[in-house]
């Protein structure tokens, strides 16, 4: 799954549940290894969308 697709799906989950967990993020990334810039893009997009990231 591409980074934009990960972002889109993570925001959908976050909006539906009011939050997203790190486990859910890891599941979206599947076995893909993200570089630090990609991780920052995902986290920034979630923050801008008002999605809370919850630790497990």
TrEMBL record:
GO terms for molecular function: DNA binding; sigma factor activity. InterPro entries: RNA_pol_sigma_70_r1_1 (IPR007127), RNA_pol_sigma_70_r1_1_sf (IPR042189). Residues 7-53 form the RNA polymerase sigma factor 70 region 1.1 domain. It comes from the Bacteria. This is RNA polymerase subunit sigma-70. It comes from Bradyrhizobium centrolobii. The lineage of its organism: Bacteria, Pseudomonadati, Pseudomonadota, Alphaproteobacteria, Hyphomicrobiales.
């Amino acid at each position: 799954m591409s980074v934009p697709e990960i972002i889109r799906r993570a925001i959908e989950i976050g909006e539906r549940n009011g939050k997203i967990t790190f486990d859910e993020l890891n599941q979206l990334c599947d076995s893909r290894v993200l570089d630090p810039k990609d991780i920052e893009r995902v986290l920034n997009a979630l923050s801008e969308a008002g999605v809370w990231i919850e630790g497990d």
